[in-house]
Structures are given as structure tokens and as C-alpha cells.
């Protein structure tokens, strides 16, 4: 093992890294938020004048589709900026999104049950807020982890209970007993997970989605499926509208769900804060007397739109709704291959995972029920003999930044998450050089 | 008094109105939401083919300023659509907004404490969410009513307590004892009101603002001042940057406040859902140990931005931030007279209030501490012998729609709120004709 006091020539001055980390006041970097890591790395870059290989942020690294930008500009020229958008969304967007669900997931959700949200972030917030009050005794969310840390922060802020487990040891058939051990208690209102998964990029198999769906039916639990990275499992080609294979989804196995679809990643449209929420036709019309106390109505769908989303922000940017509608329409008509645009991430991940593996690192979440995971937006890695705090700081000496799995609900707290989106092909040789030096400086016995 | 069964030739078929109201399932129209009234009137218009004088919606009726639209288009052309906005807002917007507060209210709030929100709607939601958890024993909001109904709906949805009173009988010096009777109990966290007031268009006098400010200081209470209609008290000219008179505000009398400023009305930019929140320099740095349980930090300002606003929507439309920044910059530099643009509403209100008064109607909230109220976006009215439910339905027979004060916390539940924004000058003769017929059909003894 390395000796911390040993003088070594690392790409970034260790003293600078140490002093910035110390000045942040954060005792353990593995539990700092993504934004806090971003802030530290910004400071180190400014002080040293050196550019990092920045893998900490899950942000798009691709230009926005011209078709969206032009539609948004056209809407602004029509004067939509002064007119409140309808809370339930502009008709074009609702129609095209419903069609998109049919053509890319092969499910039926009527346009009235498809509503825009200020990013999928608002979609999850609104879902938690409503579902936790829908049936009083079912007041607890079950996270299938690892997951997006902010969704837990939303629970803290709203004072909503949650339980969670790491999927790592419960893939395939083992998932059934594990989930049922929670549902059988009767307090679970909903199950949430992302698929493809942030941070691990595992994808649930059809078998696993069927298990989740059937158990949710059995215990009257709502499933919130976060499809922020829809169609981005590049092992299969989900890019052809109306043609199999389709994006795998729990919605094929049950009818009591909310799907959250972001424009941020698959459509590189993060800046405009536009996502879509699909409420299943069945769930939309469900009623519960318990809801009335908080929302003055018994009806799930009505409460979601006119009570929750209305009171959160009075709707979503008018012009951005036309942008998303135009991108969906072009995708539906086969004129815009949104999957091709983001396949770039898969190419980067393939190269980067190889570099990490060849230089002593291990991929933490590496398989989907015995099949190697896809190359995509994220991957996870660890290094023998390091916990994630130590690895984060040590990698900063080498000009590489990432976040810890400790904040994602993973039990593999030795692991880090890498996001490939900000790393250009030109930076790959620099990354390789730094990883090689790291490996040579930290030989594995 | 009229006889309901009497056949009269009204502009709108009474049977159609009655059947639509009945079909809505709403037992008492005076407590239906604005959106529900909108829906009913839409249906009646479609069935009858007749256009209503629509006064129920508080939406802008003016085209968006070109300066905002062009800046937004320029930002989209620069590619901001794919880039997450910083949660605390783009620098230009923060700087121009801080300057705007100095030039139009004559107060100092540093740019770091000015953050964009998805409309002032998100601003109030975020404020309630955070303030109610800031000091445990102060868990109740005090509304100075009448007020915007959705802010109470936000309380229901979040499960936050509130108390309220109608300002009507407590103008001027009487306000002090009334407010103090609530604050002395120790459970009030914050006082909220809008100024100019929605729905009544009363404006607090400097004396009243001083009373509110001094009591808030005495009892350590935060004031949330909703300035959705900033500078729209057209009795004074608030349009000259850096020159008195300035928009009256509680912020001149205390330093523990949040100001909410919407782009929707004063800047006719409702479609893009962009507002600004100013947290006073003092409040931003306040700390409370109670906050930690929900937000994992003790710091008010930090929690507002990185816990509350982040988890609500991950920021506000990137391009819209540049639009608002450009409008504020032009206003600050005296190149864009935003007040002149919206003075149109004052002209309409003057004409309409005269018509209502000449035809038997009374203005409910008519004075600011003995001075006649301004002509602006809203006014309130009633008719002898009618409660608001009856008046709403009866006016629908005459093709006129408005909402009841019953949902605004007013004790004057016989009154209705009229919004002038959707009524064009061309419609004024039609309105007058309908009011005359109403008056002649319902003579006041």
C-alpha cells in the first residue's frame, strides 16, 4: 500500500487538493453531494490551472437537437411567452407523448393522462407528494437501489418515510422474495427505481420487471418507473418506432404505474426543464377517501394535475413544451433517431471501462443477471484496498473526479460512479495516462 | 326581487348555464376553483356560440415584451437548451434583479441571495416548505387576506397550518392590535400577503407596512411579500429607475423577509414560468438546528437553494432566465418602461368600475385607509340582495364570468373578483349593454 507522506509527482498538486477538501468543511467526501464535489473540483482547477477528467456530474454533453430548438423559437415568435400554459400540457405534446409510449414501449396511455413536468425532478417530487397521502396506511416508499440521491432528499424534505435495498445481491429470481419481504408488511405505497439505472447502469431483465409488476399487483402498490435514460441500453436497438424490440418496462406487467421520462438525457434538453409523466389509465381514475384531507378531492389523476402540479409551479415552460412535442413527433415518425444521437455515450463508456479495467480497477456493477451490462451514460468502479473516500481524494491528485456510491443506497460503498458524458474523445489519452500512473503508483499485490 | 322561474330574454340561454353548472357536479359555485369556472364557461361558450366577458382568470392580456422574446431566442441559438441551469440562477439574472430591487424598491439584496423560481408559484411553495420547518414551535403561517387561493392549497398539500384574517376592517392603525393578537401566541412563523393585493387591489400604506415590519421584528417572524403586481399601483409613478417614489415594501422596515416577484403580470411573461425570489441578506445566513432533520443543513439560504429548489425542479428554464435578465436590464437602464406597458389594465379597470357602479353594483374593497383604491388588474364588486353563488350564476346568464371572494379568505363572501386583463376595449360596449340589462332586470328597491 501507498504511503501518504511519500512525495510523488502527481498531475495535480496534492497540497492544493488537500487544502481545498479541508476548506470545504466536509469531513468525509464520500457523503458529500454531487454539487459539493463540483464546487471543489472547480476550485482546484482554478488554483492549479489544470483540467480534470470530470466524471462527477450526470449532465448531457451533446448539443440540443436542432428540431427542438427551432420549434421552441417558433413558439416564442408566436407569442406563447405571455400565455399561461394549460396545467395538463399543450395538446400536441400530450398526443405525441402518448404515441411515443406506444411506438417505443408498446403500451397504451391516453393523452389526457400524460402531463408535462418541470423536469422529471418535479415528476418524482409530485409523485411522492401525492402517493404518500393516497392511502393512509401505505405511507412508505420502497427504493430499489442504487438510486438517484436527490429522490431520497425529496423524501427528507417532505417528511415521507422510505425503505430501500441494494439490488446487487438480488438479481433474477432472488428479487421476488426480497421485494415481497417489504411488501408483506403492508406499509409500502410505491416502488421506485430507474431503468437503465443511475448510478450503476444495470438494466432490469424482462423477468425482473415481471416480478416487480406481479408483486405490485398482489400488494396494491404503485410502481414509479424512472425512465430518464429511455432506450439508452445500447445492447439492443430500441430506436425504431413501432418495431420490436421495445424499451423494457414494468408497464407491460401491471396497470398501476407512473412513468417518468426526462428530456434531459435521451433528448439532450436538460436546460429547459421539461419532462413528461405518464399516469396509467387505471391509476388516473383511482379514488381514495384518504386523499381528501390534503387535496380536497378523492381522485388520483385530478389531484395530480390540479392540486399537486398546479400548486408546485402552475405548469411547465410553454415554449419548451412545443420543443419536446416536435422532438417526439419527429422520433415517432422515424425522422429523428434520438437514440443514434446519444450512442456517443456508449462509445465513450466502452473505451473508458477498458482503460479502468486494464489499470487495476474493477467494475462494481458488472452484470445483468449473468450478462455483461451495457456501455452507457454511467459505470461504477473500485480499486483494491481503497474505500470510496480515500479513492475519491487520491484520484483527485491524478486529476480525475467522480462521486461515491455511498450516497446512492449501494452497499458497495467502496465504489465510485463515473459519468462519461463530459469526457471528449480528445481527453481519452490524458485519462489513460493518468490511470496508468495511478496504477503504477499503487501496485496491487 | 327577481323570480327565478320568470322567463326572461338573457344574452345566454339560462337552461344551458343551469345544465352545465349542474353537470359539473359542483354544489356551490362560490367555492369552486378558478380553473373549474374556466371549464364551465368554456363549455357554455361552445354550446351557445356566444362569447362571455371573461373576468375569472388572472392572466396577462398583453403580448410579451419583444426584448424578452429576442433574448430568449438568442440564448436558445447559443445552445443553452442542453445545459442544466445553475440552481441558484444565471449570473446576469441575479445581478440585474439585485439592481432592479435597488432601483425600483430602493433596497439592497445581494445577487447571491436572488434566485430564479418556476414562477412565483414555486417561490411561495418553496418558502412555505422551508419556513414551516425552520423553527419547530413556529409552524403556522399567518395570511393577511383576501389572498390568492392556491397559496392556501399549497398549505393543505404540504400539511402546514395557517391562520388568517380579512384586512377589510383592520386598515391603518387598527392593523397593529389585530396582527399582534396572532403573533403573541408564538406559533406564527411567517406573515404572507400580496401588495397590490390579489383579489381586492387594495395597496398597503407605508404606515401599514411599517406596522407589519415592526411586529415581525418584535416576534421574530419572517415576512413573505408577494409582489406579483409590482409597480402596478398606477396612482403613483413607480416607473423611473433610481427615482422616488419607489414601490412600497415591508423590506424598508425590517430585514427578515422574502420577496416574490413574478414575470407573469408586470412583464407579461406568464408562459415561461419564471419568477424571482429575493431572500434578505440577514435571513439568508440565519441558522436553525431544527432545520437539520429535514434538510441536512442548518442554514436557511443554503437549504432554500440546494435542498428545496433543487429537489423541486433542479432549477428554472435556462432560456427564460436570459429573457427575464434582458427585460430587467432594459428596465434598470431606463430603456424599457415596463409600467407603461401594463398601464393598459388601469385604463380598463377605470372604465369597467364606472360601468359596474352606474348599474347598481358596489365596489367591495374600495379604499386604502380612506383613499380610493387604484385602478388595476383586479377589482371586487357585489350586488344588493345577492350572495356570491347566486350572483355568479345570474351573471353567467348575462354572459359575464367572475370568481367568488369566498375562496380568497375574504369575509365579504357576497363579493366577486373581476380581472380586467382579458377584456378588450372593443368589448366594453357589450359589457355595458349586459350590465344595463342586468340592472333593469334586477331593480334595487
Tell me what the structure shows.
Two copies of one chain form a homodimer. Chain A is of the alpha/beta class and 445 residues long. Helix content of chain A is 40%, strand content 14%. Chain A has 15 helices and 15 strands. Chain A has a seven-stranded mixed beta sheet, with helices on both faces. In chain A, strands 9-12-15-14 form a four-stranded antiparallel beta sheet, covered by helices on one side. In chain A, strands 1-13 form a two-stranded parallel sheet. In chain A, helix 1 packs across helix 2 and helix 4 packs parallel to helix 12 (318-332). Chain A is globular. The N and C termini of chain A lie close together (8 Å). Residues 1-5 of chain A have low confidence and may be disordered. The interface between A and B is large, with 59 and 59 residues.
In short:
Chain A is of the alpha/beta class. In chain A, 40% of the residues lie in helices and 14% in strands. The interface between A and B is large, with 59 and 59 residues.
